[in-house]
Amino acid sequence: MSVFELEKGLFFQTYRRLGVHIKRGEGVYLIDSEGRKYLDMIAGIGVNALGYGNEKVKKAMVDQIEKYIHLSNLFVQEPQIELANLLVQLSGYKKVFFTNSGAEAIETAIKLTRKWGRKFGKVEIIAFSNSFHGRTMGALSLMDKVKYRDGYEPFLPEILIARYNDVEDIEKKVSHKTAGVFLEFIQGEGGIVPADEKFVKKIFELRDEFNFLVVADEIQSGLWRTGKFFAFEHYNVKPDIIALAKPLGGGLPLGAVLGNEKVVDVFTTGAHGSTFGGNPVACSAGYAVIKEIQNGIVDNVKYIGNYLQEKLLMLKEKYRGLVKDVRGIGLMVGVELSVECFDVVNRLIAKGIIVNCTSNNVIRLLPPLIIEKEHVDLFIEKFDEVLNEIKQ
Ligand SMILES: *Cc1c(COP(=O)(O)O)cnc(C)c1O
C-alpha cells in the first residue's frame, strides 16, 4: 500500500495532503521518495524560517538533548531563560509565557485579557472578520469563517466580530465593556491581507479612549517574516500582548506570549500553566534561530521580498484578469487569482515548486527567509508557465 492509502485508512481526514512523499529537506529544497527536488515556497507554513538543515539550530538541539530533553516547569531551565531574555531584550516587552503552539498562545492571551479586564469590570473581546487564530475552542471563538467553526457551537460568550479594515465598524463595537482587541496586522490564512494604516490608527486611538488591551497575533507574521521583528512595527504602534509561534522553535513545537507593563501582574502562581510549554530543546533551537536571522538574514528578507513582489507584479501585468492582486510585506506574500488555486498548486508541484493555496484563490508564499534571487527566478519562471497553461 502507498503512504497515501495508508494515510486515508489511519487518520481522521482533516488535512488536504499534497501528492508528494517527501523524504528529506536540504536548504530551500525538499526531496521526494524518487529523488525529485522541489523548491519550497511555503516552508512548513512559515515554520522553517532557515530552511532545512541549519547547522547552528541542529547543534543547539543536540547539545540540549544531551543534557535533558524535558524537566517540567517544576524547575527553572536555562534554555527557557536564555530565550525569554532574548525576546524581552529584542521586543522591550516585560514578561513571557511559553506554550507549545500558536493556538495555545492565543488561549493564553484570551485568559490574560479576561483576567486583566476583570479588574475594570470588562469582559468583552473584539476580533475581526476573516481572521485566523487557531483551532481550539477559544481561538475559534475569535473567528467568523464558517469553514472553521461549523458544528462546534456554542463558543465563548462576550465576543464580538468587527469587520477587518472597517474603521466605522470597530468604532461602533468598542465600548467601556471592551477588555481586548485581537488583531493580525497582516492576515495570513485569510489570504495575506495587510491592515490599513488608518484602521490600525483608529484601534489605538480607541484604546487610549476606552482602556482595553490590543493583542497582536504575530504567530505567522512575527520573527522578521515581514522584514521587521513584528509586523506591527510597520505601523508604529505598540500592542499590549503579542502571540508568537510558527518559526519560534526552529521546527519544534513552541509558542510564546509577551506582555507589557499593564499585564505583568495578572497571572499569579497556579493561574496558568503547561506541562510541555517551553520545552528546553525547542527553546535552545529558538535561541539559535533568532541569532541566525539577526546575523545578516533580516536584510535578505527586505531585499528578496521586494524582488519577489516586483517580479510578481510583472506577472500581474502579463496575466491581467487571471492575477487579480499581489499583496504582502517582506516574505509574506499573496497572489490572488480569479480562479480557485488548488489546480495551480498541483501544476506547480509537477514543475518542482511547492506553494500553498489559502482562502480558495490566494497563492500564499512564505518561503524560507534564506531564499536567494536565483530561487525567486526559478519560481517566477515556473509560475509564469502555469499561469500560461491556465489562461488557455
Ligand atoms: C498558524 C496560526 C495560528 C495557530 O497556530 P497553531 O500552532 O496551528 O495552533 C494562529 N494564528 C495565526 C495568525 C496563525 O498563522
TrEMBL record:
Key words, A-Z: Amino-acid biosynthesis, Aminotransferase, Arginine biosynthesis, Cytoplasm, Pyridoxal phosphate, Transferase
Family: Belongs to the class-III pyridoxal-phosphate-dependent aminotransferase family. ArgD subfamily.
Cofactor note: Binds 1 pyridoxal phosphate per subunit.
Binding site for N(2)-acetyl-L-ornithine: R135, S274
EC category: transferase
Gene Ontology molecular function, alphabetical: identical protein binding; N2-acetyl-L-ornithine:2-oxoglutarate 5-aminotransferase activity; pyridoxal phosphate binding
Metabolic or biological pathway: Amino-acid biosynthesis; L-arginine biosynthesis; N(2)-acetyl-L-ornithine from L-glutamate: step 4/4
Transmembrane feature ranges: none
Catalytic activity as recorded in UniProt: N(2)-acetyl-L-ornithine + 2-oxoglutarate = N-acetyl-L-glutamate 5-semialdehyde + L-glutamate
Cofactor: pyridoxal 5'-phosphate
Organism: Kryptobacter tengchongensis
Quaternary organization: Homodimer.
Note: May also have succinyldiaminopimelate aminotransferase activity, thus carrying out the corresponding step in lysine biosynthesis.
Name used for this protein in its record: Acetylornithine aminotransferase
Modified sites of kind N6-(pyridoxal phosphate)lysine: K246
Keyword Amino-acid biosynthesis on entry: yes
InterPro entries in the record: AcOrn/SuccOrn_fam, Aminotrans_3, Aminotrans_3_PPA_site, Class-III_PLP-dep_AT, PyrdxlP-dep_Trfase, PyrdxlP-dep_Trfase_major, PyrdxlP-dep_Trfase_small
Gene Ontology CC: cytoplasm
Gene Ontology BP annotations: L-arginine biosynthetic process
UniProt entry tagged with the keyword Magnesium: no
Chief location: cytoplasm
Subcellular location: Cytoplasm
Enzyme Commission number: 2.6.1.11
SUPFAM superfamilies: PLP-dependent transferases
Residues at which pyridoxal 5'-phosphate binds: G102, A103, F132, D217, E218, I219, Q220, T275
